[in-house]
Amino acid sequence: MERFIDHCCEKCSHTRENPCKDFVRCCVEGPVCHEDPECAAKRKAIIDRVAINEQFVII
Amino acid sequence: MYEKHLMICGATGCLSSGSHSVEEALIEELEKRGIRDKYRLVMGGCPGFCEVGPIIVVYPDEVFYCRLKPGNMAEIVEKHLIGGEIVEHLLYKGPDVDAPARFIDTIPFYAKQKFNVLRNSGVIDPESIDEYIMRGGYRALTRALQTEPAAVCEEVKKAGLRGRGGAGFSTGLKWELTLNASGSKKYVVCNADEGDPGAFMDRSILEGDPHAILEGMLICGRAIGASEGYVYCRAEYPLAIKRLKIAIRQAEEYGLLGENILGYGFNFKMNIKEGAGAFVCGEETALLASIEGRRGMPRPRPPFPAQSGLFGKPTTINNVETLANIPLIVREGGAKEFASVGTEGSKGTKVFALAGKIRNTGLCEVPMGITIREIIYDVGGGIKGGREFKAVQAGGPSGGCIPAEQLDLPIDYDSLNQAGAIMGSGGLVVMDDRTCMVDLARYFLSFTQKESCGKCTPCREGTKRMLEILNRITEGKGKPEDLDTLDSLAYSIKDSALCGLGQTCPNPVLSTIRYFRHEYEEHINDKFCRAGVCKPLFNYWIDPEKCTGCTVCARVCPVNAISGEKKKPHEIDLELCTNCGSCIEKCRFDSIFITPVRREADVSS
Fold first, then answer.
1. What residues of A are in contact with residue B64 (Cβ under 8 Å)?
2. Cβ of B131 and A50 within 8 Å?
3. CA of B116, closest CA in chain A: separation in Å?
């Protein structure tokens, strides 16, 4: 998972053709539809790569 | 994980002062040392302080390097990135700080600013939708999709947001009018036709945070029931257009634009229309005509665009800065937070472009209600060269000048209107004691006269007659009755011109007559331009008592009009002198004076 649009695992189904209502929240706080520390870590890795300081992420 | 993030200002101002070369040199230096992968380099949005560009901010240290040259990069890499030591001589220095300053917490330029609209500018990669989402982006859209359209309009109304493009109409009310208009097809239009001389607020917002505009338009579309939007942006903003196109492509890929957005059944298509740069196309009905492929000319209103706009359909037109505020307002608790800043009648913040004779030229975002004095002296750092503040032109060619006596005027829609100026889109052109207010009025009127579309007689002919009079006055051919004629013509145009641009174009003349009538009278009656701008109306004169004979003036004079022996008083040959002003600019002893033609000196330089 390099970008938020990439699927963290097969449980994520968000695409533009099959959109998920929780997509935006899921990018930063996800996964929303299932619990999986690995999937959460994938999102965190994307954030950590570019977050310039601790105040960067806004929820 | 990167060790550090280097945010290079990649906005137009810094690009023109060489930030691209700085970036190339930095990359070369990092690659030479084999450490390129350790550092993230971003050509980001504008941090505002254009005067000291090119700028790099190093995060997480938050160290602000300025006035950079490619040759400085080896030192930054060696000392800061590798050695962990701040490169002191590349920090901000100025008369307003005792010691070299680091970032926002110590640079006076930032002390009174509050970043709403510019919240992401210089902080994120403007070409990354992921970073926009990390900063809370598209959450307000999600919330809007879960909320009834009328409730979204109500929230924007309650926040008290007024249009940032000029007139300051209530944005929520504008949306409500379009929502309530009948018709199944409606449009959202973003007016990015920023045409005021010296203004670059919208360009910087588009370049630094394009997704904020898209999100603002999407929320507007949801609120008014529109399914299509246009960004009308002048073609001379290629970077803004490039970044908007990238943002649109990304939002489409992420399912945030297009069909059935986020599964809520809301469809929205986005288009960009590049304008050819006519000033009049900033007027909303002319802008709509231009999008439709017709010549950009205003039409009478009513019907207003909310009833019959683009292609005859109900349309909401909002300015760039207005739309950039929307995601902040529509997010959870946003309306209340937004309304907590500003004054009773003017909520939130305002972005201003500081230009002219001010020390800190650039972009600033300040709370509504801040005084002109605070903007000029605290944010702007005062007048260049320590000269005297004379006036500030607020609102561009449609606005008016505010004199030094009103330095403590709060900046809000109503106070500015009462003072004879307007908020406009936020251009502030600062003038010192060497600015001639008659020439200033002539300049702005010449601009609006050239840009007049010619459709209505008052604007087409009236501005021409006014300009003829102003030209005469600045050439020393003014007549005593000219002021009354100017006044009468100005009010006729204001009362009868077809569009907002025509109705406001006499403002610079009216406000300069109101506050600087004595300058007009001096031009007309005494044939004297005290500021030394209108060339036929003054001479330069060297005071022999003060001249040290340093010869600098003689050496800079392009027509060899100054003569004299070294260490002895010099003289100007008025037959040769072209009044170019090179000598007075260079004289270090204040020995050159502006005098009425063929009279002794009486005005200090």
1. none
2. yes
3. 13
Return the structure tokens found at B298.
């205003």
Could you say which of B2, B138, B258 has the minimum Cβ distance to residue A49? B2
Which chain B residues are within 8 Å of A27, Cβ to Cβ?
130, 133-134
**Residue pairs spanning A and B at CB distance below 8 A:** 76
CATH, domain range B349-432: 3.10.20.600
Which DSSP symbol is given to B170?
A: B
The Cα of B507 is separated from the nearest Cα of chain A by a number of Å equal to 43
Neighbour count for residue B24 (Cβ, 10 Å):
12
Model pLDDT, residue B352: 96
- Asked if residues B422 and B400 have their Cβ atoms less than 8 Å apart, the reply is yes
The DSSP call for residue B383 is B
Residue in A3, A7, A16 to test binding to B, most B beta-carbons within 10 Å: A16
Two domains, one topology: B349-432 and B437-526: no
Please report, for chain B, the start and end positions of each structural domain, with discontinuous segments joined by +.
4-106, 129-339, 349-432, 437-526, 538-595
Reported ipTM: the value is 0.99
What CATH number matches the domain at B129-339, 3.40.1350.10, 3.40.50.11540, 3.60.20.30, 3.40.50.2000? 3.40.50.11540
Q: Do A28 and B262 touch (CB under 8 A)?
A: no
What is residue B547's three-state secondary structure? coil
Question: What pLDDT, on a 0 to 100 scale, did the predictor assign at position B598?
Answer: 64
Architecture of domain B538-595: 2-Layer Sandwich (3.30)
Instruction: State how far the Cα of B310 lies from the Cα of B314, in Å rounded to an integer.
Output: 7
B4-106 CATH pick, 3.40.190.170, 1.10.10.10, 1.20.210.10, 3.40.30.10: 3.40.30.10
Query: Closest chain A residue to B131 measured between Cα atoms?
Result: A50
Asked if B403 and B515 count as a contact pair (C-beta separation under 8 A), the reply is yes
Instruction: State the pLDDT at residue B599.
Output: 52
Which pLDDT value is given to residue B340? 98
Residue B292, SS3 per DSSP = coil
Contact B369, B391 (CB under 8 A): no
Nearest-CB residue to A51 (from B134, B255, B260): B134
- Give me the phi and psi of B353, to 5 degrees please: -100, 120
Q: Do B130 and A50 lie within an 8 Å CB cutoff?
A: yes
| Rounded Cα gap, residues B143 and B154, in angstroms | 14
> What is the CATH T-level fold of the domain B437-526, as seen in this structure?
de novo design (two linked rop proteins) (1.20.1440)
Mean pLDDT by 10 residues, chain B (605 residues): 95 93 98 97 95 96 96 98 97 93 88 96 97 98 98 98 92 98 97 91 96 98 98 96 98 98 98 96 97 97 97 98 98 97 97 96 97 97 94 92 96 91 88 96 96 97 98 97 98 96 95 97 97 96 96 97 96 96 95 83 50
A chain contacts of residue B129, beta-carbon cutoff 8 Å: 4
